[in-house]
């Protein structure tokens, strides 16, 4: 019986060429993060359904791949609702499993705990170009550190990893703080319980510009004085540490000035100790979607590509919701699949340490000749060269083209008559 | 609301110490296999339920984690059977997805295709010590090569990987061929359609010995002459290439002598070209469980540990069952979880290239002092040292003990008064 050849809807088979790039990028990321003292951990891909549907994952909870109960616990005929037949689901991110992991294992973990997670997550999203239902997330999180050392080290580590992946690309890190976002809205006179709606409009700044934001706020019915004060404030802000401090003074009536000082310190310290070049800007329009952020937020863009390649922030209240014990936390996530797409589209080739060679031998070698070919391959391998050995196919030209496509451009041929 | 802290039944959280060993071992395996010309590939963790339940996976099919249909396709209330509510499942091995992958992508793959797969698989087995419901498999497979180059290269690559992981352990590769198994049974006079039952008894040889095998065969009701001829044959066989050839001559009435010659050649060639030491033995009692093997079979044991740490064989008929096109195939699987357990139990430590250091700084440093500590960390990191920076906790002794447990044995302390 022939089976279905295509992968399940929205998921993909990864070909050797892409896989080589993925492994290369992952190794750089892991190696860099380990250099900054992060420890790799892993959680199961399957989580308790109760944990996944606990309303911490926002809209992602609608997209869970659910897992059927097994054995005696399953009674399909009597079942009325999904809940009757399901006891698990595939994780939709790495943050929720990390919270459970921390609650389960904190007695055996350093404090603060610096976690590095690389793993697949699943979301039953509507399939579309470049978006898959199984994809890799790549997160660092520091749990148990309330100081801005967490933000500083995460920005340093992440920019270093990105720079090692694409040394000739420029990156810009944009930073903001949820408290500053709120302070600006309060200062301008928006109603306190409506600031989330204001931020949703502000978040469109990069698409609709300041005038567009003004128009949408007015159309939403907010007081024209508030809208003018807000857009005026946004227009005048400088994007460096001094700008953050100046804004902090202006907002001192509605916001603790320590918030601005904290962000300015993060910016100054990162710039002072970074050993690579990248942009670092205060962006008062940076919002970040997830509701769980409580302080600093950041996003990284890459020269020549719209959207972001990394993002994160501080979420001091999330872990407590899972564990019952408040734990300060700050995380940064690399858009792994986005970076792979960028590299694939730009024809990126993984640098090979010691080259690749293909050995093709004619059919019908004597035992001694065959062993001579393999011995030669073994010698090259011992020197670090990747050697593929194959018998010549009838269509040698096609075989060589295929090998070249796999990066085996140097091809050595062995014939009965020329081997002693 | 506090959530469930434990992982789902039978699956586990992986702590930093184990994770370090896992990543280390995986990197060696991947690097070694790439040196032998294998290309890493990946398939989705979710497969079509029809593919998973196609009776190619033997008993493993009973253990599938099944995935619920979504959206309009799901109607729990009207459902009568499992099939009504399920459309996918988590893969239970990497061989079935590989067959689908090959059918889907062979136009874009080299011929022969040398696949390297590392990935989690899931089986809803009864949980027991050291057996988990999610575990990593680590396979190489050569598709489209009918020659014994496939067997030879796989044995060379796998033993090299094992030797790099544990250089001071001795390994023994035991080989056999399904045709020789069958030839010995036919030669001894067992009924032709009962050979599978004979092999199940033979497979117990390492536990019950030759006498035990004799007794069980007799108890099963086989003719005493057949049993005597069979056990006599088993007792006299030499375990080297010459022994294989001698057996081939003896079985020439019931088996094509090319089968024995092929196995003898594999053994001789591997020994002639291997650049590391390991045992290589013909084992006429080696059976291997999976029914899909068609030719050579192999198993690897490690000095001081019962059971095997790797196994595999040729399965020339399996891919054709999925694709409709017969494709010769030979695979070798490393018992990854078994090796990790052995390393963990023996207190194995991952060798660090350039060391690990922890920097602890006193609370309340000036901005300048703080930057000085971070700059020093950046310098050490640039030299390849892994540096964890943390503020001193109140209980510094405990903090240092935790760091030491994570491998940060060298700890540098920074104080307000001593930093300029």
UniProtKB/TrEMBL annotation, chains A, B:
Tree of life domain: Bacteria
Pfam (any one): tRNA-synt_His
Class of the enzyme per the UniProt entry, highest EC level: ligase
Any one of the GO BP annotations: histidyl-tRNA aminoacylation
Any GO MF annotation of the entry: histidine-tRNA ligase activity
Residue ranges of every copy of the Aminoacyl-transfer RNA synthetases class-II family profile domain listed in the record: 10-351
Keyword set includes Glycoprotein: no
Binding site for L-histidine: 93-95, 123, 137, 141, 288, 292-293
Catalytic activity: tRNA(His) + L-histidine + ATP = L-histidyl-tRNA(His) + AMP + diphosphate + H(+)
E.C. numbers: 6.1.1.21
Keywords: ATP-binding, Ligase, Nucleotide-binding, Protein biosynthesis
GO CC field: cytoplasm
Entry-linked PROSITE patterns: AA_TRNA_LIGASE_II
Stated family: Belongs to the class-II aminoacyl-tRNA synthetase family.
Protein name as it appears in the record: Histidine--tRNA ligase
Annotated gene: hisS
